[in-house]
Amino acid sequence: MDSQTDMRGGGQIQDPLWTAFPGLLGALSGLSALIIAIGAGWWADNDVSTVLVRALIAMIGCWIAGWIAGWVVQRAVHADSRSDCDEDSGLCEESDDSIQADDSMAETQVRREAA
């Protein structure tokens, strides 16, 4: 992934594929709806104008739904990459459980020395 830049300080992943993802998903959804609606309309023996109008409506609706879904996925991925939590760093030694275990061991050591 040479086009992907991970900046821990800025906390944002910049990848041209992710920035284009909502439009790509919207376009694929819209074209799929158009093809399916045209095929279903012809199979049902509808008029050409009826088929095309319904296919166009289906394409616009699915393009909007696909774009929104792509936007939600893009925001979820970017929100996760902006997290500054240690357990989100991907390093096993900095996971939440290991930090709690280290803290617990340190507290136990302090209590033993105090006793």
Give your account of this protein's structure:
It is a single chain. The protein is mainly alpha-helical. The protein folds into two domains: about 15-80; about 85-115, no CATH class. About 70% of the residues lie in helices and about 5% in strands. It has four helices and two strands. The chain has helices spanning about 15-20, 20-45, 50-80, 95-115; strands at about 5, 10-15. The protein has a two-stranded antiparallel sheet. The longest helix is centred in the middle third of the chain and has 34 residues, at about 50-80. The model is unreliable at about 1-10 (pLDDT under 50).
What is the rounded distance between the termini? 54 Å
Order of helices and strands: EEHHHH
* Residues in helices, as a percent range: 55-70%
Strand content: 5-15%
Q: Within the largest sheet, what's the order of strands?
A: 1-2
Low-confidence regions: 1-11
Q: Which structural class should the secondary elements be placed in? A: mainly alpha
Provide mean pLDDT, rounded. Answer: 78
Q: What spatial form do the alpha-carbon principal axes imply?
A: rod-shaped
Describe the biggest sheet? 2 strands, antiparallel
Total helical segments: 4
Radius of gyration: 25 Å
What is the fold's blueprint, element by element?
Layout: E1 5-7, E2 12-14, H1 16-19, H2 21-43, H3 48-81, H4 96-114
Antiparallel strand pairs: 1-2
Helix pairs in contact: 2-3
Short description:
The protein has 115 residues and is mostly helical. It contains 4 helices and 2 strands, in the order E-E-H-H-H-H.
